[in-house]
Amino acid sequence: MTEQPGTDERAPLVRVERDGVVATVVIDRPKALNALSPDVLRAVAEAFDALAAEGDAVRGVLVVGEGVVRSSRVPTSARSRR
């Protein structure tokens, strides 16, 4: 059986894909509806930091969610930790 993206707890929460000077940051948690948990936001920030370090090699960045649901919400559990 092939593991689906975002189902392995050890799998990265985001991945970066490149097409020339355009990078796509993919939130890869379709089972969680790509919810923006603190861990996901940290992973997105790390991806942006890595892309920024490339300077002019990256001219544009798209942020998308894996699967049918696109980054829908901040989960209630993350909001209650404030």
TrEMBL record:
SUPFAM superfamilies on file: ClpP/crotonase
Source taxonomy: Bacteria, Bacillati, Actinomycetota, Actinomycetes, Micrococcales
Top-rank taxon: Bacteria
Taxonomic source organism: Agromyces marinus
Name of this protein: Enoyl-CoA hydratase/isomerase family protein
